[in-house]
Amino acid sequence: MGDSYCKMSKCCQKLILGIGNRLRSDDAAGSIIAEKCKSMGLPSIDAEYMPQNYIAIVRRYNPQKIVIIDTCDMALSSGEFRRIPINKISNEVITTHSMPMVDILHKLQEITPEITFIGIQPHNIDVGDTVSIPVQEAIEKVIDCIIQGLEESIPLV
């Protein structure tokens, strides 16, 4: 699994869990962030648009903290990003994948209660492989926050 995989079930500090669909334009943001973080040696999983399929892999990392990144319609300008409090996510809060996150979050909270959810406002989630400039800029800013350990400084939605 590479150097970023936590060896011998030791706890890793922070695991990046990117959610995205690379065939739906800006919806690729979470996947792109996970891929870029992994290339920098950070423990990261690109859960694509099926994060429920990656719970067992997350468990093997045994992270102290999970940072989830996904595109979410928050009625903001394209490319803006916010932390979404876990207790505000319910069955009514839907990411761009049209699935409720609450069940996935409950499973992840069994692994660690330290979860930060970062939503990025998409410009376009139509079928395509081009990420808009505002979302490309947001991707770089979110990665910088993660690298510097400043994800908790991202404003709340």
**Structural class by sheet pairing and helices:** alpha/beta
Query: Which percent range fits the helix content?
Result: 25-40%
What is the mean pLDDT?
Answer: 88
**Nearest-angstrom radius of gyration?**
14 Å
What is the chain-wise order of helices and strands?
A: EHEHEEHEH
Q: Order of strands in the sheet with the most strands?
A: 2-1-3-5-4
How far is the first residue's CA from the last residue's CA? 35 Å
How many helices? The count is 4
Biggest sheet overview: 5 strands, mixed
Low-pLDDT ranges: 1-8
3D shape: globular
Count of extended strands: 5
Care to describe what's here?
Helix content is 28%, strand content 16%. It is built from four helices and five strands; from the N terminus they run βαβαββαβα. The chain has helices at residues 29-39, 55-61, 102-111, 133-148; strands at 14-18, 44-46, 65-71, 81-84, 115-120. The protein has a five-stranded mixed beta sheet with strand order 2-1-3-5-4. β1 (14-18), α1 and β2 form a beta-alpha-beta unit. α1 (29-39) crosses α4 (133-148). The chain is globular, with a radius of gyration of 14 Å.
